[in-house]
Amino acid sequence: MQRVLMITIALALLIGCALGQSTPEPTGCIRGVAFTTEQDQARLVVPGTKILLDGPVHLEAESDGQGTFVFNSVPVGSYTLTAEAPGLTATQNVDVRAASVSQLDLEMKVQVVAESTTVTASAETVDTKEPSGTSTVGESAVEHMPNIDEQFQSLLPLVPGVVRGPNGLINMKGAQNSQNGSLVNNADVTDPATGTSAINIPIDVVSSIHVISTPYDPEYGKFTGAVSNVETRSGDFNKFRVSGQNFLPRLRRIDGSIMGIAAATPRITISGPLVKDRVAFTQSFEYRYERDPVDSLPPLQSYNRSETFNSYTQLDVNISQKQTASASFAIFPQHLDYYGLNTFTPQASTPDLNERGYQGYLQHRYVTDAGDLLTSQLSVREFDADVVPNSTGPYRLLIETTEGGYFNRQNRDTTRTEWEEIFRSHPHHLFGSHELTAGVDFAHSSYDGRQQFLPVQIVGVAGYPLEQITFGPTSTFSVDQNETAWFVGDKWTVSNRLIFDLGLRFDRDSVTDAVNPAPRAGFILALTKDNKTVLKGGAGFFYDRVPLDIPAFPDLPSRTVNALNALGGVVSSTEYSNVIPDGLRNPRSEVWNLEVDREVTSNFLVRVGYQQRNTVHEYFLNPITFGSTGDLALSDRGSDSYKEFQITGRYRIHHSTLNASYVRSRAFGDLNDFNQFFGNDPQAVIDPNQRARLNFDAPNRILAWGEIAAPWKFTISPVLDVHTGFPYSTIDQYREFVGPRNDSRFPRFVSNDVQVLRQIRLPIKEKHAKIGFGVFNVFNHPNYRDVQSDLDSQRFGEFFNGIGRTFHGKFVLEF
After folding, report:
1. DSSP letter at 144?
2. Is the dihedral of CA 153, 156, 161, 166 positive or negative?
3. Above pLDDT 70, what percent of the chain?
4. DSSP 3-state assignment of 484?
């Protein structure tokens, strides 16, 4: 089937390229700010303004919290721009020129209401050009939705099928965190060693977050799950803007008394022109100091700490009418004290995790006279991590707690350099319209590491050691990887009711020394003439890269497991060697989906969809014993599957948006994921691999959230998230699994958060502020994070470490 699909797509691409005829269709860009003038002539921006653009095409947008709006890729021509906000309106004509940016200052006036009524047909229809499986958290949601740590990653669970797993990592569409693609402005931001997302940028520079669960565009590769892409805001080309917030720290209260600072997270963002209409810059700084409580531990030992500094710098340049460029530089060092603190692991037995990273990025865009677009981008990235124990005593795993210093010390230094060229053609016409895409991508990654493991004891109910695990000497290693990809695609618009997305991608990875063809195809079909009922779907193959800690595995310290008697004598001993018995192959997923979008009314959209993903050649660890010796085998024969049925509704009324969804899903696969035992927080005991529901499986989930424009200029943003509790396994005093894996579950997770904001004008010209508050877990539901799963414990089956209700104030100064 794979070969037939690949040949079919390749032939379609070749026919489209060979027979297409050129018809130029250049585009430009419109940017502006919506504002109103007060009686004292002060300018006050108008956020949430609905912007309508009518001309050769009809487009819509909404101004953000600074009143700014953007229309990208607008066909050349004359347009009428209409803006509407409660009690305000504006109309302005604008001409769009090829490869140029039209900058507008849109002054809103008091709306005059006539005593007659005109009824017109709604111009809003389902966007038939939006691919299937795409969800977006827009700029307004980034600003208004409750966000307890004010990081962009925490907004991803607003997308159906995306959950924060029991380890705190984001799992998208039933995939491990390391299986997903993570991009910022289309640049890869994953850790080359672990494959997990590794970047922090101030949320004030984030414009939108896209989650694509079925990315049939051949530009996307090097993952087997879903992909998230964060887009940052462009700098302001005409006016300086400054915003600052969180200048006052939150106090830490214990038993009603103030005991220091719970969090301090000030940040400031500046944007403005360096050369008017030509060069704009954005600079954002953020300092974060936070303590996360574990209520089941003694009060003075119940907090972990994190300290972070994030800086993001961006330049946007209009070089000429045909050329634009963007450059950015981010640094994001962070220090995490007591990493992995929980009910059964006190502070002394946890490590500190120190991470340091920076990323530089350069993108150049050139539009030809014919309207073709050539995009060149280069990114350079360094990410280092150290795991350091907090004490030096022997590491002992007891029934109810852990004693001693953490057993692992590691140092990771990684770099990644990536260069990409993408060519997008103007439409060619042959049996419809063809927009062709072709590109190449080259990346080089390196990983220099050091790993040390110290002895571990497993202590039973009687209080004496049952087993002791010892390790080989400290190891150092160095791994390099070259990745090359080339791809071609065709967006074939057969008619205004039928669109095909055809793509063929080839990936080569020097670690596996294999070239992997990845064909894919998607379609969009309007089932009704008014384009209000749309069927979308597709199928494709996706190959993941190999994280660099995988080929480094044979160089890691070996281990010996000793069974002990009551006097501490060795009863038996098994020495395990680290081996990769079957070589390495790139993980591959096979994905298909179908969805139906129905615009019930102009304000009410309903989506029903089904998605299935099967992944093979996944990596898992499995200890195999041969008497007194054994192999700790790293196999690429793992597999997992994900099935999702989704019903989603979106309702818009009077500048308010309400979203609701129900997802029925199943995530199933091998449980001995490599990062559990050799990632940032390794587990000491490795039991035989089994297959079961994955640790972040949540079969039933109801998600509802919205932005409500309330009276007196208040914006109320509630979130309700209810899902089945995550699964867990039962163990005995030997730390061996008892019964089927992941056969038990945590109680149902129920979270209700809300944030209220209001914009106020300050008695200073052109300055305003936003004040409000957030309440997290409004109903104080005990969403537990820990469970006593050892059946030899007197507390077996009890849950601990719930997340209680918290309050956050909010004050944002903008001018």
Report:
1. H
2. positive
3. 91
4. strand
